[in-house]
Automatic annotation (TrEMBL), chain A:
UniProt entry tagged with the keyword Magnesium: no
Topological category with respect to the lipid bilayer: Single-pass membrane protein
Any single biological process term in GO: protein import into mitochondrial matrix
Compartments it resides in: Mitochondrion outer membrane
A Pfam family recorded for this sequence: Tom7
Identification of the protein by name: (wild Malaysian banana) hypothetical protein
From TrEMBL, chain B:
Protein's UniProt name: (wild Malaysian banana) hypothetical protein
Job description of the protein: Central component of the receptor complex responsible for the recognition and translocation of cytosolically synthesized mitochondrial preproteins. Together with TOM22 functions as the transit peptide receptor at the surface of the mitochondrion outer membrane and facilitates the movement of preproteins into the translocation pore. Directly involved in the pore formation.
GO molecular function: porin activity; protein transmembrane transporter activity
Gene Ontology biological process terms in this record: monoatomic ion transport; protein import into mitochondrial matrix
Cell compartments where the protein resides: Mitochondrion outer membrane
Family: Belongs to the Tom40 family.
Signal sequence interval, chain numbering: none
Keywords, in A-Z order: Acetylation, Ion transport, Membrane, Mitochondrion, Mitochondrion outer membrane, Porin, Protein transport, Transmembrane, Transmembrane beta strand, Transport
Compositionally biased residues, Pro residues: 10-24
Pfam family membership, one: Porin_3
Length: 73, 334
């Protein structure tokens, strides 16, 4: 009886540790993914923010001409 | 009552016994009786509608009048800004700066490094959305986004991105504006979370508080603030658990002149600073000056030379550290 309960106990502990390992690896995955996503977002923002503003501005009403971007008048 | 209104046109009441009320003629007939209107207005202004208090100023702008007067953008060197409006909502800006920048040093010596940079910027200003981006020649990007998601909810994003790793900063703010309160929730890099709330308690007084949590350094703090303002003066007080006490007082002496004073005490470093300043807003220029308890005298002049052309002169004299900074510049464009 004692052996059975101890085996059961070990089985449960084994399952528990496996579950927590899976849980922690899932959390690690999420963390890695979010760090990768933040790095990519930072690079995209760094290069793309000002072109985005220019595109939005050139498409606003009244629509400006392209030469107005470059001429100092 | 016609008799209480003194008008040349109203005839004097006839001196007969039990004189009939004078028939108003001329101006008295055209204008409404004066005293009744005055009496009503006085009655309304004395009664406070406690359910209809005005919306308070945002928590981070509680000291805005004092900051505007006492902390102008002083600089050292040459500054030239050119803003070209392409559209009602879209503008490009070019800015050149040549001068010395102070490098923070461990010793008490001041180390100045001569720097020069060109900054290109684009602004898009819509009633609902505002996008401002500035990029410098060394690769730093300053981005600001302000978007009205609904009538009461606003999203603000503020970011400084650099090429060097781990030096970039970003902050997301969600602002909710109620009828007589404002609340804000902030998320920043380095696992920074903050929230603040400010409420109008009377037509002149508003109280607020903030909490923040800095994840990477496991620091948290709480602060309280109060602001009392009338038409002629604004006084604010702020206390924080980081050991900072800040008080300020701004008096609007006339339409063109305001005087401001500020007191700051830092309990951790036992630092006490008080400063006194003036702000003259005249037709062609704006002159701001201040005097500090650290022995710093500063002045900043913006003079309008022509439509859209402004001359800037900046001076900051630190008598205790013997540091003299003078700058001049020009701003062209709106």
């Amino acid at each position: 009886m004692a052996a059975k309960t101890s085996l059961k106990g070990k089985g449960k502990a084994g399952k528990g540790s496996k579950g927590s390992e899976e849980g922690s690896s899932a959390a690690k995955c999420v963390k890695e993914w979010s760090t990768w996503a933040m790095k990519k977002a930072k690079v995209i923002t760094h290069y793309g923010f000002i072109p985005l503003i220019i595109v939005i501005g050139m498409n606003s009403e009244p629509k400006p001409q392209l030469y107005q971007l470059l001429s100092p008048v | 009552m016609g008799s209480s209104v003194s008008h040349a046109g109203a005839p004097p009441p006839s001196p007969a016994a039990a004189p009939p009320p004078p028939i108003p003629v001329g101006l008295a007939a055209a204008l409404p009786p004066n005293t009744e209107v005055q009496g009503d207005a006085k009655g309304v202004s004395e009664k406070v509608d406690w359910l209809n208090l005005p919306c308070p100023v945002a928590f981070e702008e509680i000291q805005r009048e004092a900051l505007m007067s006492l902390k102008p953008e002083l600089f050292e060197g040459l500054r030239f800004d050119f803003t070209k409006g392409i559209n009602q909502t879209f503008a490009l800006s070019h800015s050149v700066f040549m001068g010395s920048m102070e490098v923070p040093s461990q010793s008490s010596d001041i180390i100045k490094v001569p720097t020069a940079h060109y900054e290109f910027g684009a602004n898009f200003l819509d009633p609902k959305m505002m996008l401002i981006g500035r990029i410098l020649t060394d690769g730093r990007l300053n981005a600001r986004v302000k978007c009205d998601l609904t009538d009461n909810l606003t999203l603000k994003i503020n970011a400084q991105l650099t090429n060097e790793p781990h030096f970039s900063q970003g902050m997301f703010n969600f602002d909710y504006k109620g009828q007589d309160f404002r609340s804000q929730f902030q998320i920043g890099n380095n696992a920074f979370y903050g929230a603040n709330y400010i409420q109008s308690v009377s037509p002149h007084l508003s109280l607020g508080s903030e909490v923040f949590w800095l994840g990477h350094q496991r620091k948290s703090g709480i602060g309280f603030a109060a602001r009392y303002n009338t038409d002629k003066m604004v006084t604010t007080g702020q206390v924080a658990s980081t050991g900072i006490v800040a008080l300020s007082y701004v008096q609007k002496v006339s339409e063109k002149v305001s005087l401001a004073s500020e007191f700051m005490y830092n309990h951790m470093t036992r630092d006490v600073t008080s400063s006194f300043g003036y702000d003259y807003i005249l037709r062609q220029c704006r002159l701001r000056g201040k005097l500090d308890s650290n022995g710093v005298v500063a002045a900043f002049l913006e003079e309008r030379l022509n439509m859209g052309v402004n001359l800037l002169l900046s001076a900051e004299i630190d008598h205790s550290k013997k540091d003299y900074k003078f700058g001049f510049g020009m701003t062209v464009g709106e």
